[in-house]
Amino acid sequence: MISGKAMVCGVIGNPVGHSLSPMMHNFFGTALGLDFVYVPCHVENADVETALKGAYALGFQGLNVTVPHKQRVMPYLAELDEAAKGIGAVNTLVRQEHGYKGYNTDAAGLLQAMEEQDVEIRGRDCLVLGAGGAAKAVSYMLMKERAASVTVLNRTLDKARRLAEEMNLLFGRDAMKAAGLEDWEKLPGEDYLAVQTTSVGMYPQAGHAPIENPAFYERIRMAVDIIYTPAETEFMRLVRKAGGRAMGGLDMLIYQGIIALKLWNPQITVPDDVVRKARSRMEEILKK
Ligand code: ATR
Fold first, then answer.
1. How many Å apart are CA 180 and CA 267, to the nearest integer?
2. Cα 157 to middle of ligand 1, angstroms
């Protein structure tokens, strides 16, 4: 039930029509009996500042921020949490007395999704494929969780180098390294935890992986692809074919959403059966 006192939240993006967040948050709101509504808001790039002021004036408790506004919102926030500062991008805003505080729940969402699958990060040698915005959030999380090493493999080597330098500086240790995608044969390890963050393999370009040589996959014990369309990417298929474990990006999406929902409603807990139901509802939508 939505009363006159309902908490209003939403997502801003450009475009925003593909976002699963409105369905997911309204599902949680109903399942938990919250007086809560979550709306999609298409915001043009030039209108981000006006949109944030408007949302604040309209009493929005919070917003999610999606592509391409995750950095653009930052100058207009009252405060930033530590992860958002480290990652340099924001995906969740929470209302404070004098404006919105920016958080990044992407990294925490991935961590929780991995913890639910009993994936250990501490002391592991990790690979990150890609060096864009998503790779930064993933690298931040792996470094924070004290991976033994994190090697970024990217088509554009320079971008991988910059990401590695930035994270090494931030965490004060030399655990991050950079390499080109084609340099995988020179990797020293046999037993990696790998996270795929490039757009390669996402619908409508399914059937491709950033590295397609099956020999690469012999070196991967556990892998996460942050893509959730299709449910099994080519990257995941190649990992599984070589005998490794692979998970897709849907759980990361769900947990980053739950973490945001809890930032807006600190009193709630989301029971496992509600998470499972939300997941199968989202899987059904993605199959269409
Ligand atoms: P996001 O915020 O989702 O990470 P992004 O910042 O645009 O998006 O980053 C996209 C990533 O996918 C980059 O690492 C990009 O590689 P480059 O830095 O070389 O551009 C990678 N990527 C995109 N298309 C690719 C392709 N066809 N082959 C290999 N890597 C690709």
1. 46
2. 11
Q: Could you give the CA distance from residue 104 to residue 136 in angstroms, rounded to a whole number? A: 11
- If you measure from the C-alpha of residue 256 to the centroid of ligand 1, how many angstroms do you get, rounded to a whole number? 21
Query: Residue 121: what pLDDT?
Result: 98
Find the residues whose C-beta lies inside 6 A of ligand 1: 130-135, 154-156, 159, 197-200, 210
pLDDT of residue 205: 87
- Identify which of 256, 280, 258, 254 has the alpha carbon closest to the alpha carbon of residue 32: 258
User: Cα of 122 to ligand 1 centre, how many Å?
Assistant: 26
Q: What is the pLDDT of residues 167-216, one digit of tens each?
A: 999 999 999 999 999 999 999 999 999 999 999 999 988 999 999 999 99
CA angle 145, 167, 81 (to 5 degrees): 70
Give, rounded to a whole angstrom, the gap between the first and last alpha carbons of the chain: 28
186 given a catalytic annotation:
no
Q: What does the pLDDT look like over 163-172, one tens digit per residue?
A: 999 999 999 9
Among 199, 200, 211, which is best to mutate for testing ligand 1, by the most ligand atoms less than 8 A from CB?
199
Q: Of 250, 194, 254, 202, nearest to 224 (Cα)?
A: 194
- In the predicted model, residues of the chain with pLDDT beneath 70 are none
pLDDT at 156: 98
